[in-house]
């Protein structure tokens, strides 16, 4: 079996709203073979940048477009192909968006491998240790404490026992920060889990002050209070914080995660399959489990990454909670025929071949703004 085509498609909603993250656009990668099989994947990054990395022609041996590296290769040799992509892009990759583009291809290769063998990806990764995983509703903060409380109540009514609130307007003032977390606890209730995603807004000393202030509201973790590159700050904060510290969603590949793992800088390592792929996520899983820390997925994009995340997280020894984005957008609900969402706060591990999802080709055609392939 050989790779004959790598098609890159950019999908976009009719209008884009100014917000930190969502599924308003997407970049899909489709790997096709001479046997007729196709694998699908996606990257969570700027779609046009990912497309450029895949489409780029040969420049020299360590600065080459990904398609150029893979046409004619055996798609089942995922580890070797990951290494080939890594070596072939070392002058513009290593820990950057290039790894995200590799992750999209890697996801598609594992999907293709699962279809070839008739097995779900979690089985190819070593086997699911969990058939169902408790999920948390992942959503942005409201504009103030009252609006945040209303959001929390809404998702508790939908059956979620845990809700995460994130990003703006947190970080504008100490008073508002505390008001937002107080509102989150009020809305979720005393028996629910409140998770707080600060959104990269503080220095380490301010983050420690907030961690002590938020501890009053019994939060499950404080996520991304510092800039992603501040490994020393995370280590310092984690050693002093009264609440668990979580981060990792911005990291691309093992080289990006390695300093955080080596320093034991986090309590919870959040791995995004659309930025790391299955090959490097399996490595990261093993390293984090070695140091006795916890793992969680990061996922704020389409059902492709939701499916990939469930397969990967189900193989983790301590899969204690799953990030389930609940923003209501067409790309999230219409891209695949299967609805990838928790029911009553629990998400089930799919058992179909590969990712276990199929694209809605009519929706792809309606949303398509750019395509390339060879």
Secondary-structure map:
Layout: E1 3-12, E2 25-33, E3 38-43, H1 47-55, E4 58-60, E5 63-64, H2 66-70, H3 78-88, H4 97-117, H5 121-124, E6 132-140, H6 145-157, E7 162-166, H7 174-188, E8 193-197, H8 204-215, E9 221-223, H9 231-240, E10 245-247, H10 254-262, E11 268-271, H11 273-290, E12 294-297, H12 303-314, E13 322-325, H13 330-334, E14 346-348, H14 361-367, E15 368-372
Parallel strand pairs: 6-7, 6-13, 7-8, 8-9, 9-10, 10-11, 11-12
Antiparallel strand pairs: 1-2, 1-15, 2-3, 4-5, 6-14
Helix pairs in contact: 1-4, 3-4, 4-11, 6-7, 8-9, 10-11, 11-12
Describe the overall structure.
With 374 residues, this protein is of the alpha/beta class. The protein folds into 2 domains: 3-118 and 360-372, 2-Layer Sandwich (Enolase-like, domain 1); 124-348, Enolase-like C-terminal domain (TIM Barrel, Alpha-Beta Barrel), CATH 3.20.20. 40% of the residues lie in helices and 20% in strands. It contains 14 helices and 15 strands. The chain has helices at 47-55, 66-70, 78-88, 97-117, 121-124, 145-157, 174-188, 204-215, 231-240, 254-262, 273-290, 303-314, 330-334, 361-367; strands at residues 3-12, 25-33, 38-43, 58-60, 63-64, 132-140, 162-166, 193-197, 221-223, 245-247, 268-271, 294-297, 322-325, 346-348, 368-372. The strands form 3 sheets. Strands 6, 7, 8, 9, 10, 11, 12, 13 and 14 form a 9-stranded mixed beta sheet that branches. A 4-stranded antiparallel beta sheet has the order 3-2-1-15. It has a two-stranded antiparallel ribbon with strand order 4-5. Strand 8, helix 8 (204-215) and strand 9 (221-223) form a beta-alpha-beta unit. The protein is globular.
């Amino acid at each position: 079996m050989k790779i004959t085509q790598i098609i890159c498609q950019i999908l976009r909603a009719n209008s884009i709203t100014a917000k930190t993250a969502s599924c308003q656009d997407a970049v899909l990668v489709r790997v096709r073979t001479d046997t007729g099989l196709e694998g699908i994947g996606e990257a969570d990054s700027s779609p046009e940048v990912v497309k450029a990395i895949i489409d780029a022609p040969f420049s020299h041996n360590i600065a080459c477009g990904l398609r150029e590296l893979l046409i004619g290769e055996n798609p089942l040799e995922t580890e070797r192909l990951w290494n080939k992509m890594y070596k072939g892009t070392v002058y513009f990759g290593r820990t950057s968006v290039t790894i995200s583009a590799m992750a999209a291809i890697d996801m598609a290769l594992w999907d293709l491998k699962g279809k070839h063998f008739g097995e779900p990806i979690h089985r190819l990764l070593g086997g699911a240790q969990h058939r169902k995983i408790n999920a948390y509703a992942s959503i942005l903060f409201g504009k103030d404490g009252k609006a945040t409380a209303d959001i929390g109540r809404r998702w508790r009514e939908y059956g979620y026992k845990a809700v995460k609130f994130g990003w703006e307007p947190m970080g504008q003032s100490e008073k508002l920060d505390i008001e937002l977390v107080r509102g989150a606890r009020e809305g979720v209730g005393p028996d629910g889990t409140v998770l707080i995603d600060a959104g990269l807004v503080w220095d380490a000393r301010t983050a420690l002050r907030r961690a002590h202030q938020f501890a009053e509201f019994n939060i499950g973790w404080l996520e991304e209070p510092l800039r992603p590159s501040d490994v020393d700050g995370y280590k310092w904060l984690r050693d002093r914080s009264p609440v668990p510290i979580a981060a990792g969603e911005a990291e691309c590949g093992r080289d990006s995660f390695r300093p955080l793992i080596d320093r034991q800088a986090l309590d919870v390592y959040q791995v995004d399959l659309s930025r790391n792929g299955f090959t490097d996520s399996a490595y990261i899983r093993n390293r984090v489990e070695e140091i006795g820390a916890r793992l969680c997925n990061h996922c704020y994009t389409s059902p492709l990454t939701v499916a990939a995340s469930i397969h990967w997280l189900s193989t983790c020894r301590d899969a204690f909670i799953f990030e389930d984005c609940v923003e209501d957008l067409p790309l999230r609900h219409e891209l695949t025929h299967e609805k990838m969402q928790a029911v009553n706060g629990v998400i089930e591990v799919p058992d179909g071949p590969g990712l276990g999802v199929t694209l809605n080709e009519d929706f792809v055609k309606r949303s398509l703004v750019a395509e390339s392939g060879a």
